[in-house]
Structures are given as C-alpha cells and as structure tokens.
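Hello forum,

I keep getting stuck at the same step: I have a sequence, I want structure tokens, and every attempt I make locally crashes halfway through. Rather than fight my setup again tonight, could one of you with a working pipeline run this one for me? It's a single chain of 461 residues.
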Amino acid sequence: MSVISFNAMHMVARTQLSRLGLFDAKVPRYTSYPTSPHFKNDVKPVDFSNWIEAIPENSEISLYLHVPFCRRLCWFCACRTQGTASGEPVTAYVETLKDELSLLQRHLPRGIRLSRLHWGGGTPTLLSPDHIRDLSAAVREVADFAEGYEFSVEIDPNEIDSSRLDALFESGMNRASIGVQDFDPEIQKTIGREQSFDTTKRAVDMIRDRGIQSLNADILYGLPDQTRSKIVDSVQKLLSLSPDRVALYGYAHVPWMAKRQQMIPSDALPRPNERLDLFETARKLFVWDNYDEIGIDHFATREDGLSLAARKGTLRRNFQGYTDDTSDVLIGLGASSISKFPQGYAQNAPATSAYTKAIRAHDFSTVRGHSFTEQDKLRARMIEMLMCDFRVDTAELVHDYKTTQGEVTDLLKRANSEFENLLVVDSNGLFVPPEARPLTRMIARSFDAYDLSSAGHSSAI
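Reply #2:
Ran it on my machine without issues. Output:
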C-alpha cells in the first residue's frame, strides 16, 4: 500500500471517529458498573458485614489496603490522598487499619485465602519498615496467601529505600508497581511530580536485586506540553527498564473534582486529536518491542499473567484496571476503599477522620454503595467483555444471566446503530474491529442504563 493511500485511509478513519464524537465525549473508565458516581447511601455497615459472612468457606478473595498519605501532593493526581510532613498520622492510620483487619477477621468465614493483596494510595512506601512488617503480619493473621498468590505494592521511586524494600520482600511482595507519568523534566515540573530517570532506575534496580521479577509501570499521555518526540523519549526510557506490564493511561483533567489540578494550565493540554496521536505513538512503540496489547490501555510481555489471561479469555477489570484475578470478592480496607461482592459494591468513608471514628467505635465505615439488580449484573458483564476482549459473547450471557438471546441481540443492534454500523453484530454477539477500538469506552456507554449527565467524566480518548 502506498504512503498516499495509507494516509488517505488514516484521514477517513479520523474523520469518522470525529463524526462519532470521539474527540468531544466524556465517558467513564468503566472500572466498575454502575460507576461510583451512582453509588447511594443505602448500603450500610450491616450490609458490608453480611456480604462478608456470605463468602463461601475455604474460598479465595482479593484484599486491597488503601494508604492515603503522600509526602507531597502531585498536581495531576485525582486520587483520594492527603499530604503529611510527619510520621504521626501514618502511625495512627496503620493502627486503625489493624483494627479494621481485626474487625474483618471476626466476620470472615473459615478457610479464606488471599489470591491477591494490593497496597495502594497515596504512597504505601511512606510506611516505615516496622509499619510494613507490622501491617503485613496483621493481614496474615486474617488470611494467609493462596497458592500462586500475588502481593503487589505501589512504589514511589522518590519514596523508597533498601530497608523498606527489604521489609516488603520479607513480607511476601512479589509484584511492584511504579508510577512514571513522563520523564520530561519540564512536564514533571508542570504536573508537580519531579522524578528523574536515574531515580526511577535506581528503584527498579533495587526491586530486581531482591528477586522481584514482576514489575508494573504507569505512564500518561495527554499531559501539558507533551509532544510526540517527548512521549517517544519517555517510552523508550521506560522500555529500557523492561517492565513486565505497562498501563498507558490518558491524563484525566478534572479540576472541578480534583482541586489541585487547577495548578496545571489548561491551555497547555493537548487537544483531543493530539491525545489520540500521543496514544498511538506510544502504543506502536510497545507493540514494536513485542508487548501484547491488553484491552484499551495496557501492555504486557507474553509471559505476564495479563497476556496469559487475555489469551485464555479470563481477563477481568476492576478498580485497579485490568487483572488476571478471577475472584468474586474484592475487599477494600482503609479510607475511601471500595469493595466488590456478588451482591454489590460497598465504599468506606472517604475522609480519614470519619473512617477512623467508625473503626474506633468497632464498626465498619461503609457509607455508600450499590446493590446489584439482575440488569446490573448483565450489563456489567457486557461492558467487561467489551473492555477486555473487544467482543460480547451472546451465548455466555444467555447461559450465565437472566436474559434471552433476543434481549441481548436488541442491545447489541442498538449499540451498533449508534456507531454507524461500524461494529460486527451476528448470532455470536458483537465484535469491535481494530479501527473502531478508540471508541470502546463510548460503546460501553451505550450499554450503561444509568444517567451520565450528572457525573463528571474524563475525555473518551
């Protein structure tokens, strides 16, 4: 194919994507369904405890611990975090987490094992070595690791040293996750996250030196003053560190939700069509370096668990993004954490003070959530299929959910009509061809039965 004809096809595809609204739409990331803006205050601590007690004995669950503290607040971040200059709030918080773990243990059925344990934040590596060992021991008193477990920790390269890494390794950490965002010094200053390549490489070397072979990395596109050449340089530097798994997230500029983002100049942000160029530039580099494409924004080596799950059709999606964990239960502990059960979602009090008050009163801090309807379960699985596999399998839905082939087919045809019949719909279900995959989150929205007008979401690209 000539360069002229290739460019012509490229322009036609861009024109169609634009006509379908890709560059204007704001849609959820669909790490849950319904999405968290639709949670209500009718899920209480008693529901949370009842759902825990309903977990089958001797089963495997996932556990997430949220550490909301950071030494400094990065301006680009929209997570629930708070800054601290001293260790006192962290020490008090660890004690509260241990109390919450004890409360969980009293309700948890016998024989439960952990298939996944994840410490997120915030900055979990703000914890001292003693805090790390103490908290790890408290977790293991509640439930031991299952065979083939994964214990991952979000590591800030600016906030890690040998003693803390030793404590994490001794506690069973076997996967580390580092945030890169971008290596360009000027972009780092603009987003309030200065982290040199040398600092990052030092952290990676320390992780590898301890025999931790599984390494995740996050990198962002759509940052202020980011260009193709800058993202090429950042991706190539990241590839030199040989991460096993990469999340290529689009920066979500939501200053009405995350006030600190008001520090970032909006006029320096790439336009939506430029964001797509940045994503495609980075995507090609990962593919050229033999990473498998996973869903809409992840990449993994052929041997990584995500790649294996994608090939087997067992890839799933949760609040951390894509996962190969197939557990039906994810319990979130700590302020603002969200749990998922077969019955629904439950979220802890977002404010650390309210969370702490509830736990000290020997009660869970659940303040909101959502109880699933049969339609929720059906649509959640349709969206997950779409986000993970770019297809919807009608036979699986009819077999596993309270629906009919006619109902599913009607939903698929309706979605296809919204996108100029660009998708493939047949008796097997729906398939999203490669040229339409930038629209995936928008297609998922067509299966969303909830009103999105009242919820602020990020750009579709």
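Residues 1-9 have pLDDT under 50 and may be disordered. If your local run keeps crashing, start a new thread with the error log.
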